[in-house]
Amino acid sequence: MRQMSSDKNSSRPHAPATRAVHSGRAPHDNFGFVNPPVYRGSTVLFPTVEKLWNRDQAYTYGRTCTPTVKSLQDAIADIEGGATTELTASGYQAVSTAILAFVKAGDHILMVDNVYQPTRKFCDYLLARLGVETTYYDPLIGAGIADLIRPNTRLIFTESPGSQTFEVQDIPAIARVARERDLWLLMDNTWASPLYFRPFEHGVDVSIQAATKYIVGHADAMLGAITCNERAAKYIAMAKDQLGVCPGSEETFLGMRGLRTLPTRLAQHHRAGLEIARWLEGRPEVARVLHPALESHPQHELWKRDFLGASGLFGVVLKPVSDKAVAAMLDGLELFGMGFSWGGYESLVIPFDARSYRTATDWQPEGPTLRLHIGLEDVNDLRADLEAGFERLNAAAD
C-alpha cells in the first residue's frame, strides 16, 4: 500500500479520515502549495534517445498518466486499502474496464441481479457479442453461489447494497467461494465509498468506484476508479492501457478536491439519510423503507457486521397509489431535484420500477418506488419538502 506524504515520519498508521486529507499530497515538491497542480497535456519530452526508447522516466505520455492522475490514484489506493488504483473517465467505464481485464471469448461470469442497470446492459449486449456469457444470481445467495459456478466461470461481480433495491450481499461468504475456485471477485463499492466498506479486508480482488458520486461529491465531474489487490493489479493496468482509458485532467483535480472533504460529507449524509429514513418509516403513505442501516431492513445484521457507515442513498416503497399522485408529489418538490446521479451535496429523488430488469429474482413492491439521495441541506427543510409532497400525493389520490 502506498504511504501518504505526511506518514513518512510516523510510527503508526493513520485512520482513513486522516488519509483522505493527506494521501497523494507532496506540497514540498510543488513549491509548498497544498494541492497538486493540474497537469494538462499529451506530449511528454525525453532528454535522450536512450530514455525515449526505454521509456525511462516517470511519465511518458499524457494518456497513460500525469502527476495529477497519480496523486489521486495513490490517495484512493491508500484510503481503500488496495495495492493500486487506476482512474477512468466515468464509473461505467470503470465497470467495463474491470470486467474486460479478466474475460475472453468462451468465458462465463456471475453477475448480481440487482446490479446498476448500465452494467447489465454491458453484459447483455457487448459481452454477449464478444462471446462471454452472463448468469444473473440472487443477491442473497451467499455461499450458495458455488452451485452456479461452471468450468468456464471466470469472475463473480457483486454490488452491495444493490442499485435501487438495496439488498446487502454476504461478501465474505462469496469471497471464500471465489478463492476456493480460483475466481476473480469484483465489487461495485460506490454506495459505501472507500470509507464505509473495506473491500480487501473482506476478500474482494477489485473494488470499483463511480467516483462521480461521493468522491467528487459536488455533481460537477465524471470520474471512475478501479482499485485492486496485488494479484489483480497487472490485469487492470493492462486493460486500461489497451482500451485507451484516460480520465480528464480537470475531472481528476475535482476528484482530489472532493476526496479531501469526503469523511465530513459522508458523515452528514449518513446522519441525515438515516434521520429521514426513520421519519419515512412512520409515514402512512409508506409501505417500507429500503435502507440497510434501519433495523427493519432484512439484511441489517449483515450490514452492521461488514459496513462502517451508510451513505445518503436509499429506497422507499409507497403504498398503492396512482402514477398521477406520485407525479403530483414529485413535480412540486422544491429542494429535491429529479436526476439520475447521486452522491453530490444536493438532495435528489427519482421514481423507478425494478420489475422489468430483474431476471434471477422476483421483485414485487407493494406500490410505486422512489430512490432518494439525502444531501447536505438542513434535515428539517428536507422533511418539510417531503411532507408537502405527501400532501399533494394524498390530494391527487382522493
How does this model look, in words?
The protein contains 13 helices and eleven strands. By secondary structure, the protein is α/β, with parallel strands linked by helices. It has two domains: 5-260, Type I PLP-dependent aspartate aminotransferase-like (Major domain) (Aspartate Aminotransferase, domain 2); 262-397, Alpha-Beta Complex (Aspartate Aminotransferase, domain 1). The strands form two sheets. It has a seven-stranded mixed sheet with strand order 1-7-6-5-4-2-3, sandwiched between helices. A four-stranded antiparallel sheet has the order 8-9-11-10, with helices on one face. Helix 1 (16-22) packs antiparallel against helix 3 (67-80) and helix 12 (323-331) packs antiparallel against helix 13 (379-397). Mean pLDDT is 94; it is low at 1-8.
